[in-house]
Amino acid sequence: MDSAAVRALFPVTERLIFLNNAAESPLSLPVRRRLEDYLDLAEHAPHRRPPARNPVRLLLARLLGGLPEEYALVPSTGVGLGLAAAGYAWAPGDNVVVPAEEHWNNTFPWLALRDRGVEVRIVPIEADLRVAPARIAARVDSRTRMVAVAAVRHTTGFRADLKAVSRIARDRGALFVVDGIQAAGVMPLNVEEDGIDVLACAGFKWLLGMPGTGFLYIRKGLWDRIRPTLPGMFSAEDDLSELRWLPSAQRYETGTLPYSLFHAWTAGLELILEIGVPAIQTRVLELTSRLIEGLQAKGMQVVSPVESQQERSAIVAFTAGSQEANQALLARLTERAITISLRGGRCRVSPSFYNNEEEIDRFLGTLA
Fold it and tell me: I want to staple 34 with a disulfide (CB 3.0 to 4.6 A). Which of 211, 267, 339, 353 is the partner?
């Protein structure tokens, strides 16, 4: 990976030390150029606007496994998980298992099922903020229909053992549902290798897209068990007398998408495929290792579980001692054009592959 060439693709590096990629990826030049190409056609030759749906599906399948027809295009992670939760044929007494303190998008769709008589079983988090597969297994039984976890937790960066959780779900006949937004594009994630039945993700973080892009993967063979809940013109055959679902995950798509954003997103996905997720993972782990060592040398408490390389991600959470101290630190960093975020009252730092060691060192230099 040519670090200088990669950095040149992200103009944010000219003005900010942006270490908040877990919140949103800064716009890259390839994505902007493709967006501008689409807008130019929309202005001058709207009949020639390029198709966006199938190109995105093809790229997602190359990046994350599965078949292109197993991907539905949706505007966000929340929409994808909501469709999967609402579309399943739940019966009173069924249950879904989900870890505590997941993101809102992997919590609210399941809590809403209580109105349908579904039990929501919350798995406690370990004292070290890990999600233990054994804790999940203890709550799964013959009435468990879905087990839902984040591939990477948004607050701490803890990376789940997806293969282990998938085995737990499948041993009981449950579906394995994954919120992939903090993993896809930056950490290894493959629907076939990881045994994932349902994967939802937005494009505006590590996948280098913009808000309004995303997907819902549902494994072929499950399309009759998870029914579409918002049928529209793109989800069924052109027959106004009978509803006949399309033989693909496109049945979960409702209507018109922000095509300009999805077309632009193809440039971000192509960039990830060109560099390769293994190279991206290696780079961010190099940067986070430097970050962790520096934080510990400064006397900061790293709260992310970082002892195991397999459980690490591009997110590092730490505390300066109190929520007030963390807020003061955030303000000081902002004054110096260094961007991180607060999650759960803790500082969250999330470098990407275009960041460099100098930026990490300048960030560390602001710490008391």
Answer: 267
- List the domains of the chain with CATH numbers: 3-19+277-365 (3.90.1150.10), 33-273 (3.40.640.10)
C-alpha span between 353 and 286 (Å, rounded): 10
Condensed to tens digits (0 to 9), the pLDDT of residues 174-216 reads: 999 999 999 999 999 999 999 999 999 999 999 999 999 999 9
> What confidence tens digit (pLDDT) does each residue in 107-163 have?
999 999 999 999 999 999 999 999 999 999 999 999 999 999 999 999 999 999 999
Q: Alpha-carbon torsion 251, 257, 260, 262, what sign?
A: negative
* DSSP-derived secondary structure for 57-89: HHHHHHHH-S-GGGEEE-S-HHHHHHHHHHHB-
Q: Is the pTM of this model over 0.90?
A: yes
For strands 341-343 and 346-349, give the pairing: antiparallel
